[in-house]
Amino acid sequence: MTVRFTLNGRPVSISTAPHRRLLDVLREELNLTGTKEGCGIGECGACTVLVNGKAVNSCLVLIGQIESAIITTIEGIADGANLQPLQQNFIRAGAVQCGFCTPGVILSAYALLSENPQPTEEQVAAAISGNLCRCTGYKQIIEAVMLTAQERSAE
Amino acid sequence: MIPRFDFVRPRSLDEALKVLGENSGAMTVIAGGTDVIPGMQQGDARFWATQTVLDIHHLAELRSIVKDGAGWRLGAGLTFSEIAAHAHIRAEFPLLASAAASIGSMQIRNRATLAGNFVNNAACADSVPPLLVYDARVHVRSLTGEREMPLAEFLLAPNRTALARDELVTEILLPAVPQGYAGRFYKLGRRRGIAVSRITLALLLKVDATLVEDVRIASGAVTPIGARFPELESDVRGKSASDNLWASLAQDLGNAVLERTGLRWSSPYKLPVLQQALFGMLCDLSSARRP
Fold first, then answer.
1. What is the ipTM of this complex?
2. Residue B280's domain spans which residues?
3. Would you call B42 an interface residue with chain A, using a CB distance cutoff of 8 Å?
4. How confident is the model at residue B262 (pLDDT cuts 50, 70, 90)?
5. How confident is the model at residue B181, as a pLDDT?
6. A24-70, pLDDT tens digit by residue?
7. Does A58 contact B at CB distance below 8 Å?
8. CATH for A2-76?
């Protein structure tokens, strides 16, 4: 089957098998390996991408379901070699350790900040509660998101 | 690994019903996919015979929220994010809004749909207890007709509903809640995020001066399917509201659940929690009324 969608701002048309998940197509056919597979059943959030601006688990979406949708992956949020402020702040706050959960967490936080530019810590924690991180203990992640929100409000 | 299948993406609800009516045999309907896809991924026997997947997630006909004379009609394909954020649902059906906000994770709520939560009739479906205390009705359609029934009758037995193979749930009808009702939703899982519920309870209460005019109780996860407790409810109607009445009602709920499930390894742990939760909610609601 052929599926057309917008990926990181560019139109994509791909011929693939209907049982492929969005995750499989991103990683194996489009070579966008920033999106990770963890549990494969929607519980860890490592495969989080944005579909029409909303955070979703790409392991729970069949490729045919994203016809005409706008998809953003971790590769699509930096401006060329310039990282997003959110990415910069993950580095600054020490929110990246092994890094496996990081693309997913950043996209969940990115979706939150797009809808709610000034979240409370509680709202940040809720927004990333679908992303498991076994390294950081989440404290530095929440700090990085709050830092980004504060910088934006100072601008 | 997900098995191979064909994929059909209809352009309208009518087309979906036509495809389903003509090929219902080995067809699996998918909306948000948060139950079906992990099921397939894990080799669940429910999907062994699947030859075709019919996607209905994008159908606009299943995404509306309208108010009519009888109450609200919610599209079967609304996501839990949409339900949790909807101002009117939050105001008029707060138990449903809190259940919606508690389901899975943000990523799951952005995909998972209202009808998708109960069409497989899993005991742990969080939206079911609130829908049951609101006396929700289910509207279903097929190529040849449509029918409507109370959710309580739609849910037959664990993993079984009244939905025929050629039918789709199209709407959930919520009758307007009369003045004077207040309610609570309770959920206990092993953690707060992405947890399968161990206990859910929905409670609606109307107390007139000091008399219990109406009480509606529904449980999930602790009973084989989400269900109301009509005997307990009628027992307390007309009685004088007091902490003693609430204590005996909570006690009776524990016994009623035990009767339905038999003794399980988890009963000594869950039943006291269930009883305490109901007692706490009842006390909380009646103290909120006191001046």
1. 0.96
2. 183-289
3. yes
4. confident
5. 96
6. 999 999 999 999 999 999 999 999 999 999 999 999 999 999 999 99
7. no
8. 3.10.20.30
Q: Which of A21, A100, A84, A43 is nearest to B40 (CA)?
A: A21
Chain B residues close to A18, C-beta within 8 Å: 4-7, 53
Domain boundary among B145, B175, B205: B175
Please list the alpha-helical segments (H only) found in B42-150: 80-85, 87-92, 94-102, 106-109, 114-118, 128-133
Q: What residue ranges do the domains of chain A occupy?
A: 2-76, 85-154
Which residue in chain A is spatially nearest to B34 when comparing CA positions? A60
Question: A103 touching B, CB under 8 A?
Answer: no
CATH architecture of A85-154: Orthogonal Bundle (1.10)
* pLDDT computed for residue B16 by the predictor: 97
Q: What is the pLDDT of residue B123?
A: 87
Alpha-carbon gap: A99 to the closest alpha carbon of chain B (Å): 20
Compute the average pLDDT of residues B237-253: 96
Written as one string, the DSSP assignment of A93-150 is TT--SS-SSHHHHHHHHHHHHHH-SS--HHHHHHHTTTS--SSS-SHHHHHHHHHHHH
Dist. CA A28–CA A31, nearest whole Å: 5
Rounded mean pLDDT, A94-118: 97
